[in-house]
Specification:
The protein is α/β, with parallel strands linked by helices. It has helices spanning 2-20, 24-28, 41-47, 56-72, 78-88, 93-109, 123-136, 180-185, 231-234, 265-268, 281-286, 290-300, 316-327, 340-349, 359-369, 385-393, 415-420, 432-444, 463-471; strands at 139-146, 149-155, 166-174, 193-194, 199-206, 218-220, 224-225, 245-246, 259-262, 270-271, 308-312, 332-336, 353-355, 375-380, 395-403, 424-427, 456-458, 478-481. It has 3 domains: 2-136, no CATH class; 146-289 and 433-481, Medium-chain alcohol dehydrogenases, catalytic domain (Quinone Oxidoreductase, Chain A, domain 1, Alpha-Beta Complex), CATH 3.90.180; 290-429, Rossmann fold (3-Layer(aba) Sandwich), CATH 3.40.50. The protein is 40% helix and 18% strand. The strands form 4 sheets. Strands 3, 5, 6, 9, 10, 17 and 18 form a 7-stranded mixed sheet that branches. The protein has a 6-stranded parallel sheet with strand order 13-12-11-14-15-16, with helices on both faces. Strands 2-1-4 form a 3-stranded antiparallel sheet. α12 (290-300) crosses α18, α13 runs parallel beside α14 and α15 (359-369) packs parallel to α16. Zinc ion (ZN) binds next to α9.
Length: 482
Amino acid sequence: MQGYERVRLQLSECNVLGVVGLGPPQLLGEVPGPTPEHGVAEEADRHGPDAGEPVESDIWRDLAAVHGLVHGRQRLRTQERRRKKLVLGPDLDPLIRQVENDAAVDDESGHPLSTLPKEVRPLDVVGHSAQSHASLVPMRATVMYGAGDVRVETVPDARLVEPTDALVTVTRSAICGSDLWPYKQMERSETGRRMGHEFIGVVEAVGDEVRTVKPGDVVVTPFVWSDGTCVFCREGLHTSCLHGGRYGFDGVDGGQGEAVRVPQADGTLVVLPVERDDALMPSLLTLSDVMATGHHAARSAEVGPGKTVAVVGDGAVGLCGVIASRRLGAERIIVLGRHPDRIALAKQFGATDVVSERGDEAVERVRELTDGFGAHSALECVGLEQSTVTALTIVRPGGAVGRVGVPQEESIPDAQPTFFDNVTIAGGPAPARAYIEELLPDVLEGRIEPGRVFDRVGPLDEVPDGYRAMDDREAIKVMIEL
Ligand SMILES: [Zn+2]
């Protein structure tokens, strides 16, 4: 660990010099002399008697730093190159080009630092390279300032803070139906709120205590982070983790951005056995939230072989609820919805009946389809009062309602009828971390294709229009490619 500190300090100094605009000779050689109180004296010894002279290992370290920078953005755009040139100075351009070329080769091997000499390849150098990357190229992310006001703008760089953190470069992200609640209602805020909690990315760096993920891993995150070790995590209820939290709050980055600091990386991230641009990415991304949430609705509603299921809501979660119900063996799946494109998809996912009526008429229709009894299982995938009432009244005596739509009302209606019918009312936020491992093999082997809920894909800049499109019901769900 001493070595880690040493290298980190030395590189930090290099970076500071680079950022304030000193030219390459200073960047590579004239690093301020090491100070013993910072524990870098030994490092200076290794460099030889004069730490002020440019030495090969310093150069390699800076190469490592720039290399990390390049690897973090495999698709360097002209604009980014220009920015780097501004920051690093024109003389470093050949160095960047050289490293870009190396990166192109290395990206295929998946080992970004494989061309570097062994002695400068420890984890801490890799880790630091990401910090260099973050500090040299301004990071962009989605910020919401109030209802209808979503912007993509420069934000403070994502970086490691706790030893249990991982720094993840986002490669795919998504807009969630739950993001539309603040989009409709959020009060004006001067500072704004960072958005996004569904993403897949590549680990760029990890803290000292992280053991289960490493730089280069392609990872998916559940929509909340958790330690994986507390009493609730051990029971599979990671959403109630004693040391967990939400993306976009308390100094943690949101997922609709270029990079994210993931707290409790060991307990949170799941390594995916695929390359970063695998064709399965859309379906893998749904494990972050919607597919796990649809599965949770089905589990909470006690879906099983031979049962009749009614799914209230034809949004992405409802559609995933259809997939989950079929996967769990439901015999009949009635979807309540009225958008033709969504209904078509629901049928492809396994819905056997469609009810397009609303309110009392919808209840009537479901009863007709179920010998007057109602469904064994009702999946409430919206959260509004009307949809909740519908779910509670189309379930048969002894049945179960699985609620996964974030309730927009304080109390659950129909207390007496559901009491006298012995209806189970369950559900809440899905412990996606627990479900990812269960659902992942089905995605990898193509048994389920939840990624088909994404009917619009765009770059980070199109996030604001993605919110509008989902809010206008033009899009079912929007995927962001970075
Ligand atoms: Zn926990």
